[in-house]
Amino acid sequence: MDAGFSIASHTATQGDGRADPIVYDTTIYDAPLVPRVGAVYALNSSMHAAMLGTGNVAQSALQNSGFRKYAGDPLASSRINLPDEMYVVASATDLTVHGGVTSPTTRSGAFRALSDYVSAHPDAADSLQVVAVSSAVGTA
For 32, what's the count of Cα atoms within 13 Å in the CB-facing half-sphere? Predict the structure, then answer.
């Protein structure tokens, strides 16, 4: 008799996904003891998602207490926007910008430009390096 548990990629599987439409039948009671049938209302997926985000569960104290109280909406865009760090090719001895290689660019772009420059000028291989613009001396 087997006991315990096992962890492997084949032990737990997910069943087939199923999306059933949510449909409401409307019954109207506007006269005593004489109900009438109203229109059939189908709830679309965007309305369903909106109701999930603003309903009782989303507004409950359990969802908005403890550390969650300060977390904010995980799907909202960030309120803090930092610019991407820019890089240049500079001298390995004094960090002065070597303007003939590239203007400020991304890190990978600076390494690519340095590689291309060193291919054309092999004697500069040990004298140049990629550094952040904030660490470099001078401007390109």
Answer: 0
- Per-residue pLDDT tens for 15-61? 666 677 888 899 988 888 888 898 998 888 888 888 887 888 777 77
Give the chain's length: 140
Per-domain residue ranges for the chain? 22-71, 87-132
Between CA 81 and CA 16 the distance in angstroms is: 40
DSSP state string for 45-101: HHHHHHHHHHSHHHHSTTTTSTTHHHH--TTSPPS---PPP-EEEEETTT-BB-TTT
Note whether 98 and 125 are within 8 A (CB).
no
The Cα–Cα gap between 105 and 113 comes to: 10
Structure tokens at 25: 């039948």
